[in-house]
Structures are given as structure tokens and as C-alpha cells.
Specification:
By secondary structure, the protein is α+β, with helices and mostly antiparallel strands. It folds into two domains: 2-64 and 167-335, Aminopeptidase (3-Layer(aba) Sandwich), CATH 3.40.630; 66-152, Elongation Factor Tu (Ef-tu), domain 3 (Beta Barrel), CATH 2.40.30.40. The protein is built from nine helices and 17 strands. The strands form three sheets. It has an eight-stranded mixed sheet with strand order 1-2-12-3-13-16-14-15, sandwiched between helices. A six-stranded antiparallel sheet has the order 5-4-9-6-7-8. Strands 10-11-17 form a three-stranded antiparallel sheet. The two termini are 31 Å apart. The mean pLDDT is 95.
Length: 337
């Protein structure tokens, strides 16, 4: 399972440029209806053994955070902006790659050239440059153009006791769970929305929900875990190794109370490890979905993940498995509400 996750995470797909991920998913699923809408969402219908009382939609986003070239300096360096919410502190010195294979390194001026104030804080994006080894602007322009996107260029691997590290686990984990649900012969009919542009404002989800018109939506995501050294209590938010995270509220959504309680009780009944957050933080495609048309009852299941939006997202395989099992169980539970 984790080998397949690392395979899909290795694909490059910044917001607005998710084509490689979409093509991979299309080639890997067996469904009754597959639609690519005008934004690039992949909308999939899979007929099950039964027809549900409610129209159910599962959703996960294909895009990942990255960088977009905004200018090329006279000496061949690239100015850029962030695509999605990236902390500048995690990018300095990182390797990046472009869709055409061009590679580079993110840098800034040397420490001994910085002022005392500059050395006290992380540089902002406007102080960073991508070095692609070009001699001048003309040479750089032959490799990269304004508007081209890059992603973190980092290795993926397993380590410790069930831990997995990769870029783009947010949210290729949710995508893979849905792919396995589609191919696994589900009990009930359902729609599956592989959405675009979540990282820049949940834009794809808005269009997908409008098209599908679900009664109930289940968003499959990753969510920030802060269970690291010297962090205690509520500030840990959620923890790796404690199971699927079922959300009750975040900065974009107050989740349907009945669905939240049913998700927790179903997990407990089936012996699926589960937890919830200890802080109201973050947001995901639920924010757009739950206010679509006349409103959509929405639930969110997440794999807890350390170091989100970095080249080193880290999850635990057991939490991924718990999330996948609960998603499958909720298709049946929600279908008959």
C-alpha cells in the first residue's frame, strides 16, 4: 500500500497543473462514469451493489503546494511566488524541479552579507531566488518561463515503526483511498471527486459539488499533527499512531453534528482507531462543499501528518489504514441516513 502511495506522491501536480496526477488516476481506476470538467476536476461515478437513499460524494484533492516563476533576473536566477500556503522557513536551501525536468536550488544572499536584522528572521519569498545554474537571463529563459511551476525535489522513504516520508502526501493519501474504494467493489453507488486547486482556495471542490449535487460529502484529507518534542497538551492538535482524525470544526467548516458522531461511533464499533483535533485550525475542501447549492451535509476524515506543506510530510501507515477503513464503512452508514 505504501509503495503505491509513494508512487502517486512522486508525481508533480501544483495547483492548476494537476494533469499528471489526473492521468495516473484515470489509468488506475475502473469506474462506470469518468468526467473531467472545465477546471480539471476528475469526477468519477462507481455503481455499487445497492442504490443509496442519499447521493454520496467522496472528495480528495490532487494538487500540491509549489512555486511559480514570476521573473528572471539578468544573471539567470528565478524570482518566484508560493503556490499554496508554504512557510518560507522550510524552503531555503531546498532542491526543486520543474515539469520539464529542470532542477534548481532555492537560495538567498550569504549570511555574511546580511544585516543584523536580516539574520534574526527567515527571509520572505521576495528575498529568495531559484538557482538553475544558468549563466544569464537568456540561458535561463530557454529552460524556464514566467508562470512555470516547480515542486519540492525530495526523496521518499520509510523509516522507524511504520513511518513514511514524502512530498505531496497532502493529499495524494486521500486520492489513493478513493482509488481503492472505486476498484474494491463498493456496496453502494457513490461519486468520487478528485479535485484541483485546493491549496489556493478550494476552487475545484466548489465546482465539483455544484456539478454532482451530493446530499452528503466525505472529504478525505491529511491534517496537521504537532506531536513533536516539547509540544504538549492541546497544542499537539492530533497525533501519529492514534488513528483517523474525525473533525468537528476547522476555520472553514462546522461539520454536520450527526455525521461527526456517527463517524466516531462507527469507528469505535468496528475497532478502528480514531481521534479528533484538540484545536480549531486549518481547513480543506469541506469549506467549499458544505455551502454548495442548498447546502451539503459534510464530514471530514484525515490522516494525521507532520510537517505539512514541506518536502518532508510524515505519516504513519496505521493511521492511513484506519482512515481508509473508516471511509469505506461510512459509505454504507451514510447511504441509509
Amino acid at each position: 500500500m505504501m509503495d503505491r502511495l509513494l508512487e502517486i506522491c512522486a508525481l508533480d501536480g501544483t495547483s492548476g497543473d494537476e494533469g499528471a496526477v489526473r492521468d495516473y488516476i484515470k489509468s488506475s481506476i475502473h469506474a462506470d462514469k469518468v468526467i473531467t470538467d472545465n477546471l480539471g476536476n476528475l469526477l468519477v461515478f462507481k455503481k455499487g451493489r445497492k442504490t443509496p437513499k442519499n447521493r454520496i460524494m467522496f472528495a480528495a484533492h490532487m494538487d500540491e503546494v509549489g512555486f511559480m516563476v514570476t521573473d528572471i533576473t539578468s544573471d539567470g536566477f528565478l524570482r518566484f511566488g508560493a503556490v499554496g500556503g508554504i512557510d518560507p522557513r522550510v524552503v531555503l536551501g531546498r532542491a526543486v524541479r520543474f515539469m520539464n525536468g529542470t532542477r534548481g536550488v532555492i537560495g538567498t544572499k550569504a549570511v555574511h552579507q546580511q544585516s543584523a536584522d536580516e539574520r534574526k528572521k527567515a527571509p520572505d519569498f521576495d528575498a529568495l531566488l531559484i538557482d538553475i545554474g544558468a549563466e544569464n537571463a537568456e540561458e535561463a529563459g530557454k529552460r524556464v518561463s514566467r508562470g512555470d511551476c516547480a515542486v519540492f525535489d525530495s526523496d521518499s522513504f520509510r523509516f522507524g515503526s511504520g513511518f513514511v516520508k514524502s512530498k505531496a502526501i497532502d493529499d495524494r493519501a486521500g486520492c489513493l483511498i478513493m482509488m481503492d474504494m472505486i476498484n474494491g467493489g463498493p456496496e453502494y453507488d457513490a461519486w468520487y471527486a478528485f479535485t484541483v486547486q485546493e491549496e489556493v482556495g478550494t476552487r475545484g471542490a466548489k465546482a465539483a459539488a455544484f456539478t454532482i449535487e451530493p446530499d452528503i460529502a466525505v472529504v478525505l484529507e491529511t491534517t496537521t499533527a504537532c506531536d513533536i518534542a516539547e509540544t504538549s497538551g492541546a497544542k499537539r492538535v492530533c497525533e501519529l499512531g492514534r488513528g483517523c482524525v474525525v473533525s468537528y470544526m476547522d476555520r472553514a467548516t462546522i461539520y454536520d453534528r450527526e455525521l461527526y458522531q456517527l463517524a466516531r461511533s462507527t469507528a469505535d464499533k468496528l475497532g478502528i482507531a480514531n481521534q479528533t483535533k484538540t484545536l480549531i485550525a486549518g481547513g480543506n475542501d469541506s469549506g467549499a462543499i458544505h455551502v454548495s447549492r442548498g447546502g451539503v451535509r459534510t464530514c471530514a476524515l484525515s490522516v494525521p501528518c507532520r510537517y505539512l506543506h514541506s518536502p518532508a510530510c510524515v505519516i504513519n501507515e496505521a493511521d492511513y489504514t484506519a482512515t481508509a477503513k473508516l471511509a469505506e464503512a461510512l459509505l454504507s452508514a451514510f447511504a441509509e441516513l
